[in-house]
Recover the amino acids of this structure.
């Protein structure tokens, strides 16, 4: 199993540009989520999904969109990038949203918005 | 906001036990205590979780006080590779959401 994969690893954007961060998992997990981590801080939840076709907002959803058309993929879209979105983005998945067991995290995407 | 309080940093000598404390005085009866760690900006890694009994796995032991208001993560023989930020998280088990709420954690430095 590849686990949770994220692409790209690094990205530089200009203010106002849009882009999609990709996240995929091959463990048939129902629950997937996106977090951002700013320097010296813990992770903050952006959006999450408890299954294909179902998404919901987390703590800091503004400026981001998600969709979940398949169990495997959970892309995160930045609609109009802003410097405040400079951060490291982590995707995670787990067998169920019920907290049964561990969440698996991807390696992260490091995004800089100029 | 995170429901837990952890010291911002700790040091430990290599080969010694590392004891990381966590206070969660407002924990509810259906909330579990989870521990994750993050090594050098990698994705967080699950370590262990428990409700009220002490738990042990191949990575660590978790000791939860009888009143469940605090807990201690124990790395029995710390190595340099255990240098990381350790997060203590309380979360509901069995609900419809698996969201983790991270605080700032404890930065553990294991020294030779």
């Amino acid at each position: 199993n590849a686990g949770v994969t994220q692409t790209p690893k690094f990205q530089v954007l200009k203010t106002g540009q849009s882009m999609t961060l990709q996240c995929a998992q091959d463990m048939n997990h129902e629950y997937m989520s996106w977090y951002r981590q700013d320097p010296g801080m813990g992770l903050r939840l952006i959006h999450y999904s408890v299954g294909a076709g179902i998404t919901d907002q987390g703590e800091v959803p503004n400026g981001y969109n998600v969709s979940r058309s398949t169990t495997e993929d959970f892309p995160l879209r930045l609609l109009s990038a802003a410097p405040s979105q400079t951060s490291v983005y982590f995707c995670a998945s787990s067998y169920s949203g019920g907290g049964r067991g561990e969440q698996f995290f991807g390696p992260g995407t490091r995004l800089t918005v100029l | 906001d995170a429901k837990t309080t952890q010291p911002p940093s700790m040091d430990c000598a290599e080969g010694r036990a590392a004891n990381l404390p966590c206070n969660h005085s407002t924990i509810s009866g259906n909330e579990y205590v989870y521990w994750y760690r993050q090594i050098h900006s990698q994705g967080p890694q699950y370590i262990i979780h428990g409700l009220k009994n002490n738990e042990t796995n191949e990575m660590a032991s978790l000791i939860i006080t009888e009143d469940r208001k605090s807990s201690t993560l124990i790395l029995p023989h710390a190595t340099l590779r255990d240098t990381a930020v350790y997060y203590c998280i309380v979360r509901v088990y069995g609900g419809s959401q698996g969201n983790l709420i991270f605080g700032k954690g404890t930065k553990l430095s294991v020294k030779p």
User: Anything to note?
Assistant: The CA atoms of residues 24 and 73 of chain A lie 4 Å apart. Chain A touches chain B at residues 4, 31, 33, 35, 40-45, 48, 50, 58-59, 88, 90, 92, 94, 96-100, 102-108 (CB under 8 Å).
